[in-house]
Design brief:
240 residues, alpha/beta, eight-stranded parallel β-barrel, globular
Length: 240
């Protein structure tokens, strides 16, 4: 299982996500580095853990601002591979992100399955559909989708999605685990051809083992890395 450190970007710096309450996010305080500049934090992840594949959430873009393309270019120029959520709503808003390795398309912002299908046809395996939840409830335009989280995931797979992220924002940074193991297990059993990624609330190795046991192939982690709960030796057991 791959470990993907998270960079939550807001106002040009890395912030600490807590419960999805983005207006409360503040610059990250980390044991890994005294800086909250994106490149410095990314380099700290690489130096301390040997991790160069990152999940980047551009919170300003999610709120409607232009994506932080210069920051993405700087990170990629330093050798990092990025999966970026920058508030993609349709093909036009996805176009500036054509160079990133992972194009994250979130349930929170995408206009509906028809737009997701267009993105899958255009960008293929680069598309990562983020099944965005808040306390287990799907986010976004509910009228454009049918059913619960599992059924929405099925609609996404039907459009061509082969990389699926399960993310409960209410669990981010609050130290309560992801709470999505049952959903993840059901999705991997139903769609074994889909790469499943999970995030939001990973506390340590026990959570990572549970997710791995549910068929999750990659996990988003932030707070447990910054706080020193997870060490490099802990992550070695999850290396592919």
């Amino acid at each position: 299982m791959r470990i993907l450190p998270v960079l939550d970007l807001k106002g040009g710096v890395v912030v600490r996500g807590v419960g999805g309450r983005r207006h409360e996010y503040r610059p990250v305080v980390s044991r890994l580095t005294t800086s909250c500049r994106p490149l410095d934090v990314a380099r700290a992840f690489r130096d301390h853990f040997g991790l160069a594949e990152l999940y980047v959430a551009d919170l300003d873009a999610l709120a409607g601002a232009p994506p932080a393309l210069t920051t993405f270019d700087v990170l990629r120029g330093d050798g990092f591979h990025l999966a970026v959520d920058a508030g993609v709503r349709d093909a036009a808003t996805a176009a500036p992100l054509a160079d990133v390795e992972g194009l994250v398309v979130g349930l929170e912002t995408i206009r509906g399955p028809e737009e997701l299908a267009i993105l899958c046809r255009t960008h293929g395996g680069r598309v990562v559909f983020s099944l965005d939840l808040r306390a287990g409830v799907p986010m976004g335009e509910a009228a454009n989708w049918r059913g619960d989280a599992g059924e929405i995931a099925g609609q996404a797979v039907a459009t061509g999605v082969r990389r699926l992220l399960v993310l409960d924002l209410a669990r981010v940074g609050v130290g309560e685990g992801t709470g999505t193991e049952e959903l993840c297990r059901g999705l991997t059993n139903t769609y074994p051809e889909v790469e499943l990624i999970a995030g939001g609330g990973v506390r340590g190795t026990a959570d990572l083992r549970r997710l791995s046991g549910c068929g999750v192939r990659a996990a988003l982690v932030a707070s447990a890395l910054h706080d020193g709960t997870l060490r490099r030796a802990d992550l070695e057991q999850f290396r592919a």
